[in-house]
Amino acid sequence: METFQLSEELLKKIADLILAKKNTPLKKIVKDVHFADMAEIINELNEDQGIYLIKLFDSEKTSEILTELNEDVREKILKALSVKEIADAFEELDSDDAADILGELSEKRKEEVISEISDNNLADDLKELLSYKEDSAGGLMAKELVHANENWSITKCLNEIKKQGENVTRVHSIYVVDDKQKLIGRLSLKDLIISPAKKLIKDIYIPKVDSVNVYEDGEEVAKIMSKYDLEAIPVVNNKKQLVGRITIDDIVDLIREEAEEDYLLAAGVQGDVEADDSILELTKARLPWLFLGLVGGLGSVFILEGFEDVMTHPSYKTLFFFTPLIAAMAGNVGVQSSAIIVQGLANDVVKGSLVNRLLKELG
């Protein structure tokens, strides 16, 4: 597959066609562009151009582009789209992706979009997903999955799976539940295909299956999926009933976000900030640690002031020239120590008390 390269020439051509409102040649240019690449183009256009361009696509392509846009760009485009256009786009998405975008809207706008969705099941699913914390298993999961009842015959199971599969983008596993929707195992596709048609699912399913609680923290889910090399994991409620599934693509997004947060934390930046955020937001994120550094620097000044007589003595005057070097080395050591600690916290390998960790760094 040839990698898409966004050039200034292509951007200018698209911008000129938008300005001239020449939709036919514009559609011809973007017709076969992948939705992720299309999002990259819209991210680089100005607000009016991006809105104009996305309105040229049908609801399916629009929905895919929305999932890939930068949050600040998506926010502006969602404001420009009508409630009906947003609802139509959501009906093309998996419930987890739709819920993530829906969560960025105001409460009033959320209600309007949900009421406009014609698929009542999707509307109910979105309401449920929005009730969970964003970084919990419930906030990460999708409601679309393939499951089988233990009392079904092979024939009935195959027919039901065909129906369920229409709403599932990719089938990673077939989960088995009892009559109370309690998760009791998983089903091998091979066993399903080769077993006699009259045989029951309870006779062939695998009773062992890894699962996570709907309130489990997203980072813990990521660790479980990484440890056991899972492409998907079922999500259960407190009654052990199957309520959804989390796929590896959702976890990759979470891991990337956590890595960005850890990187910013190691550099002394608080909160979720981007390079194109406002000056006020960037200042709020950076000021606390800069202020702490200022306090530490003032402390050093007061300490040096106590040794004024020594520093001005002819025998020790040369030591004064090493002060910038010592300060620079201290800063480097601080950055290295914070990076190691943040990495350890992220990987859950920091053991022992805080005092022991400090002594180890000082040693």
Number of helices: 19
Could you name the CATH class of the largest domain?
Mainly Alpha
Number of domains: 3
Give start-end ranges of low-pLDDT stretches. none
Biggest β-sheet strands, sense, barrel: 3 strands, mixed
Radius of gyration: 28 Å
Secondary structural class: mainly alpha
Topology:
Layout: H1 8-20, H2 23-30, H3 35-44, H4 47-54, H5 59-68, H6 71-80, H7 83-90, H8 95-102, H9 107-116, H10 120-130, H11 137-140, E1 146-149, H12 154-165, E2 174-177, E3 183-187, H13 189-194, E4 212-213, H14 218-227, E5 232-236, E6 242-247, H15 248-266, H16 279-305, H17 308-312, H18 323-347, H19 354-362
Parallel strand pairs: 1-2, 4-5
Antiparallel strand pairs: 2-3, 5-6
Helix pairs in contact: 3-4, 3-5, 4-6, 5-7, 7-9, 8-10, 14-15, 15-18
What does this structure look like?
The chain is mostly helical and 363 residues long. It contains 19 helices and six strands. It has helices at 8-20, 23-30, 35-44, 47-54, 59-68, 71-80, 83-90, 95-102, 107-116, 120-130, 137-140, 154-165, 189-194, 218-227, 248-266, 279-305, 308-312, 323-347, 354-362; strands at 146-149, 174-177, 183-187, 212-213, 232-236, 242-247. α3 (35-44) runs antiparallel to α4 (47-54) and α3 crosses α5. The two termini are 52 Å apart.
In brief:
This protein is mostly helical. The protein folds into three domains: 8-136, MgtE N-terminal fold (Alpha Horseshoe); 146-247, CBS-domain, CATH 3.10.580.10; 255-362, no CATH class.
